[in-house]
Specification:
The chain has two domains: 64 residues; 204 residues, 3-Layer(aba) Sandwich (Rossmann fold), CATH 3.40.50. The longest helix has 15 residues. Helix 1 crosses helix 2 and helix 6 packs across helix 7. The radius of gyration is 21 Å and the shape is elongated. It has ten helices and nine strands. By secondary structure, the protein is of the alpha/beta class. Strand 1 and strand 2 form a beta hairpin. It has a seven-stranded mixed beta sheet with strand order 5-4-3-6-7-9-8, sandwiched between helices. A two-stranded antiparallel ribbon has the order 1-2.
Length: 288
Amino acid sequence: MKNNKEVWRIDTILNWTRQYFGEKGVENPRLDAEVLLSHILRKDRIYLYVHFDQPLESGELAAFRAAVKKRAARLPVAYITGIREFMGLDFEVTPAVLIPRPDTEILVETALKMLATVDSPQLLDLGTGSGAICISMLANLQSAKAVTVDISPEAIMVARGNAEKHGVTERLTFCQGDLFAPVKGQIFHAILSNPPYIPEDDMVSLTPEVRQEPNLALVGGKDGLDFYRRIIHEGPTYLATGGFIALEVGIGQAEQVANLAEEGGFFTVSEIVKDYGGIERVVVLTQK
């Protein structure tokens, strides 16, 4: 980007940034340019089109340059803006947490349907990250309470901030620890998790953006199934009668996770839910 007295308008700077991002291998160059500029200007994206000829002030230009530099280095947009939308809510995200994705909304939507007739459901969210799953659940189920667990203290801090932002703190208990360890003796109507599920050897083939997300939230052991084995093995102890476990899975993992559950002898696979791309994304387990 030229660093001189030239006046940069919204349209010219977006066109330049789109081309620059394209050269750097950014997957959605125009979209990312618009999202970053909207964030800097504190306007929605439609504003950019309506006010295409608006010149940027020097402070706005400097801030946008800094954001463009980070994105060109393949830092995810959500880490630059610090915000990601999920289930209609804005969540703070930092490099300490996995960026919430639309695929995970399928997990939340599935659980909401299954709990629609349950009075005062008690929920357990394993691997909370930003808190997107449990906070979205509580925002939609006003009688529900939840316990959420993450091994990362930094992630717990982010989730706490999001819970306060969305007014669910009084109904949410935060626990730092490894899966079920902090909730011994407790019983829940639903256990929800988007656990780490990427096989170790697949990490090298991920995009540079994904590789900048926390490794703890991505890698699920040699075959990607380590956490599913543990949840399926330990889960029955923590489920109320008629309760269920809903697990997000990676591409091609639904059948493997279903088989693990059937082999364990405690669960029936009641449903496998596809995402909007037709990929089997959520496995629902109920006790036999």
